[in-house]
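Q: Could you fold this chain for me?
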Amino acid sequence: MGKFAADAEQLLKLVGGKENINAVTHCVTRMRFVLADPSKADVKAIEALPSAKGSFTQAGQFQVIIGNEVAEFYDEFTKVSGIEGVSKDAAKQAAKTNQNPLQRAMSNLAEIFAPLIPALIVGGLILGFRSFIGDVNLFEDGTLSLADTSQFWAGMYDFLWLIGEAVFHFLPVAICWSVVKKMGGTEILGIILGICLVSPQLLNAYSVASTAAADIPVWDFGFAQVQMIGYQAQVIPAMLAAFVLVYVERFFKKITPEYISMIVVPFFSLVISVIVAHTIVGPIGWRIGDAISNVVYAGLTGSLRWVFAPIFGLLYAPLVITGLHHMTNAIDTTLSQQFGGTMLWPMIALSNIAQASAVLAMIVLQKNERDRQVSIPACISGYMGVTEPALFGVNLKAGFPFICGMIGSAIAATISVGSGVMAFSVGVGGLPGFLSIMPQYWLPFFIAMAVAIVVPFVLTLIIGKKKGVH
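A: Sure. Below is the predicted structure, expressed as structure tokens.
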């Protein structure tokens, strides 16, 4: 018998047996179950298992924290249960049966943006570094930047724009691909559709506002004219266009005989989708994106920012629990495109730091080695921007650390917004997050970051000692 055979056998019984498991998989530290009836899982008994370090339910999946040896535990579990594991994607699809319509919508949105996050983070970091070397005057009494004093750094400043432009100006290509891939369409058609939204033949989206209506180029079909406007860095138009492509392709697949489908389906799907994108959903999506970003920007910069900021800082962590936080990716990207940066993302980074700091205080309080095995990795993960282990594995279970983190986040968010802190785009949502902040805002962001560390840590420590946490 293997090291975890006994615990795996017990876990099988405690989740309701083989017949209660619709799917099982694992991630880096957790077993992930999609249960037919989640109420059959005996949570207290499961968390009492020697191998289990906690449990929680998120996005329709019942997750048991095992730790770094989860792969070995998973192998033992599949042996004793006779259940063949599935991929993470298959488990996510199965888990949607346990979600309400809003949760399913947020899960789909998350799955669309998840593949794009690495590129957005890299793009934000590159723009931040580029601005530091080319736009911050540190030499000759504050008159010259690093790029002004060195040909190497001047060349680097120009070179880095290649990557920054690829990430943000051509973002619709990635969005169209991701939507089409998620919905089971032909991915290369999604890529081509995205290119048709940002082609150099089109008037660049950034130039539309400064171009007179009479000077905007058009496709003239005789009976109608269509403006040749690009959608560089636009999120919602690209998503809507991709949805059109998916459903048009599905329609033609249904009605087209197999022997000519290779020609007919992609031709009509792409031509119709590009036409609809530039005549209907593109302009509509642009207006929707503008409306959303204008409302958010007004909340962040207007007279109500002193209300908006603490409320957002307070409620972001609860949004993570529900999955609703995934919508902020689209908002952040739209803000960056429309206003040259986002004031929303810095608050997200500060919230993550605050929750991790509450976990850090719990580590100081805890004497039980079993508890610390959960808290230490969760704290590190939180400071790197991934807070689910901190939230579900530590803070929510104890209750008060979660509230302390929310309070620290609210205060830090108020400082950030009050100081006008702006990021180039989405970045690493934790301590390294300052790299995506515009350099002129580093000082107030560091002050807000210090508050996000100190306030939750001190509050959690005080309350934890009063409660006798050990």
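A (continued): The mean pLDDT is 86.
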